[in-house]
Amino acid sequence: MIKDEAQKLGFLFCGISKAEFLEDEAPRLEKWLNNNYNGEMAYMNNHFDKRLDPRLLVDDAKSVISIALNYYTDEKQKDKEAPKISKYAYGKDYHFVIKDKLKALHQFIEENIGSVSGRAFVDSAPVLDKAWAKKGGFGWIGKNSNLINNKTGSFFFLGELIVDLELEYDNPFNADHCGTCTRCIDACPTEAIISPYVVNGSKCISYLTIELKEEIPLSFKDKMDGWMFGCDVCQDVCPWNRFSVIHQEEAFNPHPDLLEMNKKDWEGITEEVFGKIFKKSAVKRTKLTGLKRNISFIKIDKNI
């Protein structure tokens, strides 16, 4: 019943896991943090125990209801010389879209089952989304560290509804269909994928253009591949994404002016234009100052 409702709400997948300690992830997360692969994302060092055990986030948690929401589009920016923006940020900020849907799912559960305590999570708390999605049967974690499904690729968001309700649990996805492929590793402009399944977050273009608040280090000169917000390279080259289907979520459609802006438009972007195009967008996270910093670095990057 819950999965049927999730589908009606537009979710691509819905899987359910028992809320328990993520034993396999604990040493991997600890090693990743000890290597400082989180860069200046200091918050990743916080709440280590909570990241690994949902019962510390929601009192008496019994189940993790994982969802995925497709955001793939074949629409592209018209000017090939323009600074690039990741597909996920074309439309409305996914945090709001998914949280609204998860709240609706929670309400549906209460209306049909009775009082159920729970919380919706979309990047808003220490939850290991990919680990729960894998446990929920969505797919495997690829060499680029993204969750991949062998029927729809990897262009989807993840979220959870953690509840104090016992449910029937799905089997985890234990296969790995990356095989000997290394396209994502070979294509990464900054060589952030330092080995299969391990990403040095502090070298990732998404980190450099969004999370990093200081100036982008000059060591990344000529390596940014024209990206001003996020990066899609490791997904664009992944063979499994040939199965991606165009999303049906109206909220993710780009502002009419976004794809039309040319290189000069971006270089001269004003507060007014930024506010209009990115009114409810995830791009607001980097603010106009951050976007301008990224665009300026790309100009240096290309020796213009």
TrEMBL record:
Cofactor(s) needed: cob(II)alamin; [4Fe-4S] cluster
Binding residues annotated for [4Fe-4S] cluster 2, in chain numbering: C188, C204, C231, C234
Annotated ranges, domain 4Fe-4S ferredoxin-type: 169-198
Pathway(s) this gene product operates in, as recorded in its UniProt entry: tRNA modification; tRNA-queuosine biosynthesis
Protein name: Epoxyqueuosine reductase
GO molecular function: epoxyqueuosine reductase activity
Pfam short name (any one): Fer4_16
PROSITE patterns named among the record's database cross-references: 4FE4S_FER_1, 4FE4S_FER_2
Superkingdom of origin: Bacteria
Oligomeric form and interacting partners: Monomer.
Enzyme Commission code(s) on record: 1.17.99.6
List of residues binding tRNA: K213
Binding site for [4Fe-4S] cluster 1: C178, C181, C184, C238
Enzyme class, first EC level, given as a word: oxidoreductase
Residues at which cob(II)alamin binds: R51, D123, N144, L147, L158, S206, C231, D232
Primary site of residence: cytoplasm
Family the UniProt entry places it in: Belongs to the QueG family.
Cofactor details (free text): Binds 2 [4Fe-4S] clusters per monomer.
Function: Catalyzes the conversion of epoxyqueuosine (oQ) to queuosine (Q), which is a hypermodified base found in the wobble positions of tRNA(Asp), tRNA(Asn), tRNA(His) and tRNA(Tyr).
Substrates-to-products reaction catalysed: epoxyqueuosine(34) in tRNA + AH2 = queuosine(34) in tRNA + A + H2O
Organism: Pseudopedobacter beijingensis
Active site: D123
Localization terms from the record: Cytoplasm
